[in-house]
Amino acid sequence: MSFGIAGKARFAVAATLLVLTSACKIVSIDEDRAMRERRSGKIDAGAVVARDWQGRLLPELTKSAVNLAEIWPAIARDPAAAGAAHGRQASEGANWTFVVKGQGRVVSVDDTSRSGAVRLAVPGVGDVAIQTGPVLVSTAVRDAIPSLRFDDFPDQMAFAAVNKALNAKALESATRNRALLREGAEVSFVGVMHMGEPGQAAVIVPVALGAAAQGG
What DSSP string describes 8-62? Predict the structure, then answer.
């Protein structure tokens, strides 16, 4: 059988397409999602956080905590400068995240909402909301930990699973110390917050709560 130049070209294109089609598997969106979920499943986010929380992650946070009453005026005066001096950005252009500590008096307790919160009166700051859950929609804890980087995880679902596990671990302190969180009680805290809008009260995800030292 003899082919002209045009015939040979068409044959070559057809053969190439046949090879490419046989080498590639076309999957649906649902199949692709399932495969990604399986890959994410290789990381047990709860186990990773449970393993590293007490020995590495919590000490990393507490070591970097700054006194909220000391930096609050700087945040109100120049948020960007305060962020650069005392905060962290998880990525370029992201909101500033601060790890803070302090103490205050409980003025109200909202335990009727799924997104519960305790309001403290903190000297030099004013009202501060300590989130107590059980629902917590925040990436503040994850964003505050430099050793947790997106590139170290297989995909966004795995990174989100770690965030969920971190939030659950952080809220354990609020659960354990529920008896302390009553109106009039003096409470100390270490926690993480994203920079809010100007004039907005601080909203903190606690990683450690306790009774405030007398006279402190």
Answer: HHHHHHHHHHHHHHHH-----HHHHHHHHHHHHTTS-HHHHHHHHIIIIIHHHHH
